[in-house]
Amino acid sequence: MTIDATMVGRSYSAAESYQVGREKIREFADAIGDANPAYRGDDAIAPPTFAFMVGSKALDQLLEDGELGLRLDRIVHGAQKFSYTRPIKAGDDIAATATITTVRKAGDVEVIMYETALTTVAGEPIATSTSTITHNRADG
Amino acid sequence: MSAVEVGTELPSLTVTFRREDLVRYAGASGDFNPIHWSDRMAASLGLPGVIAHGMLTMASAARVVTDWLEDPADLVEYGVRFTKPVVVPDDDKGVSVTFSAKVDKVADGLAEIDITAVAGEEKVLGRARAVVRVP
Fold this sequence. Notes:
heterodimer, B: 24% helix, elongated
């Protein structure tokens, strides 16, 4: 199977909620070379792009939908946007749901947009992530 | 932060990515896409070599804004297009990316910031923009 425009609207929720730990925030901040003190300690908030990692747990489910026929090693990230209601912070327990919003095809190349809602497990909004990915089915 | 107005320039930032940094980012983020560590897999997708994670470039670009803000929680919107791959050579030197940013709109307690990211002579991000709360 391959992805097509009839699959717009399909939603995929992360298998489990994501519990944000202060040491994971520190590890992530270290990996992006960001020494900002706001990202350290008991009251740490997460760097802005940490939201993508949390949302990627929903993307994992999307990639497992065999009907879409997508492979991670054929995907290139084209664009990314975040809107924040508030920063992610240590102690958050986050639910992520990704919804396919656009599918455009040109030969072997598919351009897919999906929106990932990050909320607390109680449903309070935290951030929305909008991603554009390009998937190439051609064999090199 | 002093008064923010249209034309205010934020302090620029230069970062260097080496293969080691990509491995560290892969581990911290869980993004193990082989185009970020395997020359063979990168080439099979038609890329000129191993490239930096777009999200690592995006994270670095955000620092121009969050280093300038007193509180990074004042970032309310942030988006980029990954227009050119940032190729990271397998050597000790790596690749340097320089980020600069300028306020181009101020209204209703929000400032809009345009960010430029340059590696070598090429812009690697397009439409890189942030919206922040300002006093």
